């Protein structure tokens, strides 16, 4: 990318199994603080990549405060299993996966390879309380990610993480091919994101994309981009505007489907193309 600060690396390497077969690309989406719009960005990026003719999964590992299922219009009352059930040995991981293609891909979901799967976490108060009280075996999560890719024949698997840094976050970053870091133009976000960037480099994540979300109209975007890229020595892949359309939608649907020509959508399309170029499908 022309004009990048020195030291920016954007091209990742695909992981291979022992037979040389390409494995599912794992994309970890993370923010150091809550309120960045992480789940919205995750869902919309996943839909854009799926519409490109790929099999895509999204797993909600924010077990303490799940919510991405709302964007895919998946009714928790209709679920047989969730990620919680897998982590506590009640079902295989693929039993907690739901095909939501019809909810977000339209006719594209029936005429080509495009598919979208969601693995939600439970919203039941008792299940959340058990996580807070007992925790879970984090190593099972890694096993589940690999198994999901094989069983569902996924090209890409997005991990929607809990904000901040904990054991689950470290594992998700460590096993990822791509880390998408989402932040706001806010001093607290600047300081907190620096922690995640440093962790990602220590864990040798192959590709890292930074997205600045909820940017007010009138801000100097060039100065903002240069400041963040200089601060972190990492590429800013998209600057997403704070907009009334997102507020009105209120997480009730996938934004890129409702507003395909919106600047928010166009910026995310750029990121989706970059991820697909750096990490071609299996």
How are the secondary structure elements laid out?
Layout: E1 25-30, H1 38-51, E2 55-60, H2 68-71, H3 83-87, E3 98-99, H4 101-104, H5 108-111, E4 115-119, H6 125-134, H7 138-152, E5 156-160, H8 167-174, E6 178-183, H9 187-202, E7 207-215, H10 221-232, E8 236-241, H11 244-249, H12 255-258, H13 263-278
Parallel strand pairs: 1-5, 1-6, 2-4, 2-5, 6-7, 7-8
Antiparallel strand pairs: 3-4
List keywords for this structure.
alpha/beta, 16% strand, disordered N terminus, 8 strands, 282 residues
What does this structure look like?
- Helices cover 42% and strands 16% of the residues.
- The protein is built from 13 helices and eight strands.
- Helix 9 links the parallel strand 6 (178-183) and strand 7 (207-215).
- Helix 1 crosses helix 13 (263-278) and helix 7 (138-152) runs parallel beside helix 8.
- Mean pLDDT is 86; it is low at 1-14.
Low-confidence stretches: 1-14
The counted number of beta strands is 8
What's the helix-strand series?
EHEHHEHHEHHEHEHEHEHHH
The residue-averaged pLDDT reads 86
Number of helices: 13
Helix content range = 40-55%
> Order of strands across the biggest sheet?
3-4-2-5-1-6-7-8
Alpha carbon gyration radius: 18 Å
Strand content: 15-25%
Strand-pairing-aware structural class? alpha/beta
Largest sheet: 8 strands, mixed
Distance between the termini: 25 Å
**How would you sum up the global shape?**
globular
